Amino acid sequence: MTALPLADTGLADRLTDRLARVETRLVEAASHADHLADATSRHLVSAGGKRLRPLLTLLTAELGDGADPRVLDAAVVVELTHLATLYHDDVMDSAPVRRGAPAAHEVWGNQVAILTGDLLLAKASALTAVLGPQAVLVQAQTFERLCLGQLHETVGPADGVDPVDHYLQVLADKTGSLIATSARYGALFGGCPPEVVDVVTTYGEKIGLAFQLADDVIDLTDDGGLTGKRPGTDLREHVPTMPVLLLRRLVGSGAGTAEDRRVLDLLDGDLSDDADLAAAVRALREHEVTERTRLAAEARANEAVDALGALPEGPVRDSLVLFARSLVERSA
Fold first, then answer.
1. What domain range includes position 39?
2. Mind listing the pLDDT tens digit for each residue in 248-264?
3. Which has the higher per-residue pLDDT, 166 or 328?
4. Which of 18, 72, 93, 188 has fewest C-beta within 10 Å?
5. Cα–Cα distance, 164 to 234 (Å, whole number)
6. 294 and 176 in a common domain
């Protein structure tokens, strides 16, 4: 079974087998002769995960010749890059848990966690070089966007920039860029024509936004089973999310009610106490801005599906549609 919903059992069996091969290569790529580096680098690999990005690479490669061995290498590259960003993000966000396990910085400290992320990026870069100059350029452009997204998230919107628009751009850079590259690599090394590569790249960018907006909802509605994070983690750390930004915009416009202001005051308060955090999560979950965020995720998923219209009909396109829909359904 794969974490991606697939429309054909033959396709599912084929991708399950190929994903197992990617997993083996991923473990090998994250391994080091140095004992400490080996332990820290394999920490998140061993914690598991849905492997959505490499799965997407394998799936879009099926639009062409999915058997090209470079597809497997590309799938490893995108997951290594993703894992590296998780090490860095958890330090930036002070997240205590990742995928049900203690975050690396909780075990080894911030500096070791950051350096481990850098090691994984070095591994990804070396493997990308084997894929050729075009892949190196794509990887560099993707990494640039990942860094810009983190930079802009850290600094916040400039004067005169709408915080909601700023946040959507951060999501596009931090999440959409790598998912788009995952889809692009699959089609590229699957031997698809340029127009197909462009279609799946656009699709990947849009589902990246849908994915993260859905996660903003899940952070308020799930018990942690879907994201591997404690509910309300972002609220406790005062990390901006779409529901909070929409509420802040509502109150700032003067159109908010006294209840809206009460909820915002609650979110802006000290949420270190578990009871206070639970009350804040409950208040925001029940507010209309959370449903508006879910609808925004649905709209991005619909745009992603619309982008697939140029692809040939068949189980691959059907599976891409199912994947886009499932991103929103998990937040319902």
1. 9-148+168-192
2. 999 999 999 999 999 99
3. 166
4. 93
5. 16
6. no
Is 155 contained in some domain? no
Residue 296: inside a domain: yes
Token representation of residue 21: 């091969």
Q: How many domains does the chain have?
A: 2
Domain assignment present for 163: no
Enter the tokens of residue 292. Answer: 């508006």
Would you call 133 exposed, middle or buried from its count of C-beta atoms within 10 A (0-12, 13-18, 19+)? exposed
Residue 67, pLDDT above cutoff 90? no
Q: How far is 288 from 294, CA to CA, in rounded Å?
A: 10
Tell me: pLDDT of 307 over 90.
yes
Q: Measure the CA–CA gap between 68 and 74, rounded to whole angstroms.
A: 10
Task: Flag whether the pTM goes above 0.70.
Answer: yes
pLDDT class for 93, splitting at 50, 70, 90?
low
Shared-domain flag, residues 131 and 204: no
187 and 199, same domain (yes or no): no
What CA–CA distances, in Å, run from 132 to 36, 65, 151?
31, 18, 29
CATH of the domain at 40: 1.10.600.10
Instruction: Read off the pLDDT of residues 206-261 as tens digits, 9 standing for 90 and up.
Output: 999 999 999 999 989 876 555 556 678 889 888 889 999 999 999 999 999 999 99
- Sorted by sequence, the CB contacts under 8 Å of residue 94 that are 6+ apart come out as 237
pLDDT > 90: percent of the chain: 70
DSSP codes, 18-41? HHHHHHHHHHHHH--SSHHHHHHH
Model confidence pLDDT, tens digit, residues 289-301? 999 999 999 999 9
Distances (CA, A) of 38 to 24, 42, 99, 108, 264: 15, 6, 19, 13, 44
